Amino acid sequence: MGVGLVHYLAVGLVLFCLGLFCVLTRRNAIGVLMGVELILNAANVNFIAFSRFGVAGYDGQVFSIFVIMLAAAEAAIALAIVLGIYRRQRSIDVESMRLLQG
Amino acid sequence: MADASLSTAVFYLLAGLSVIGAAGVAFSRNIIYSALSLMASFLGVAGLYVMLYAEFVAGVQVLIYVGGVLVLTLFAVMLTQGIQDVEVSNRSVGRTIGLVIVAGTFAVMMKAFMDAKWRIADPAATMPSSTYGIGDALLGPYVLPFEVASIVLLTVLVGAVVLSRKEVGERDRKDA
Q1: B74-119 tens-digit pLDDT
Q2: B14: exposed, middle or buried (Cβ count in 10 Å: 0-12, 13-18, 19+)
Q3: Do B72 and A26 touch (CB under 8 A)?
Q4: Does B156 contact chain A (CB < 8 Å)?
Q5: What domain range is B2 assigned to?
Q6: What is the pLDDT of residue B176?
Q7: Which residues of A touch B144 (CB under 8 A)?
Q8: Tens digit of pLDDT for each residue in A26-65?
Q9: What is the DSSP letter of A55?
Q10: Do B84 and B34 have their domain in common?
Q11: DSSP label at B109?
């Protein structure tokens, strides 16, 4: 049996679950961001698999380009924020970020 | 037939690379190793894109993720952690609860896409060069999101500079 749509979706699902686990359990803000990148990658795998095996033509690939663009933007802004928090608190542990907690 | 089994083997190799890399990101104790595993995962996913006839997206993936996002992440790691305390820097808590949530998500989504009736186009039909199609789509039906994306990127550029620059004024005052 050749490699079909379901195989790629399974890879995307495993990547998504590992990214979700990373986001849920990491206490380092940069670790959480890495989990977010994994989740975005999983979404991209699905987009491109549907673009290959589906009937929508290139739409999936165009969407994945936009996702990559937004992921780069998110990484730049989020890491700048993390650096700012580190300068202020000397820590990027997300449990120590409770400035807004009443 | 030999061709098909070769491409199947390459698929499993690349899928294994990306999944093992992702596992390294999720489970590694050292955040530097996490970042390097993330690179392996990105490269494996780029290989999968090539297998899906999306060579342009694969190139973009390597350029932006491996060349940009990952370097940025490594810089952030090195600017925020002393290299010496890197062993304890990647603490993770609540692993049991996390595993339960992730296993539940996995089961639900696996069942969803195994049960779904996908409308699969003729897989034998190979697509022509993806660069041509993407360019056509970006300047055709997707021209408005494309232009908005350029504004987003400009905003991000300015915003990242503003957020991460040093407050020069205060430091000068302290020194004086």
Answers
A1: 888 888 765 545 555 556 667 888 889 999 999 998 898 888 887 7
A2: buried
A3: no
A4: yes
A5: 1-90
A6: 47
A7: none
A8: 888 888 999 999 999 999 999 999 888 877 778 889 999 9
A9: S
A10: yes
A11: H
Tell me the two tokens of residue B76: 């952030």
Identify which of A93, A9, A23, A34 has the alpha carbon closest to the alpha carbon of residue B101: A23
Q: Supply the pLDDT for residue A46.
A: 92
Q: CB-based contact (8 Å) between B71 and chain A?
A: no
Q: What domains does chain A contain, in order, with CATH numbers?
A: 27-91 (1.10.287.3510)
- Tell me what pLDDT residue A64 has: 93
Interface touch B69/A75, C-beta < 8 Å: yes
Number of structural domains found in chain B: 2
* A6 at interface of B, judged by CB pairs closer than 8 A: yes
Distance from CA of A102 to the nearest CA of B (A): 23
A71–B65 C-beta distance less than 8 A: yes
Burial of B99 (0-12, 13-18, 19+ CB in 10 A): middle
Among residues A49, A3, A43, A37, the alpha carbon closest in space to that of B42 is found at A37
CA atoms of B71 and B35, how far apart (whole Å): 9
The ipTM estimated for the assembled molecules is 0.89
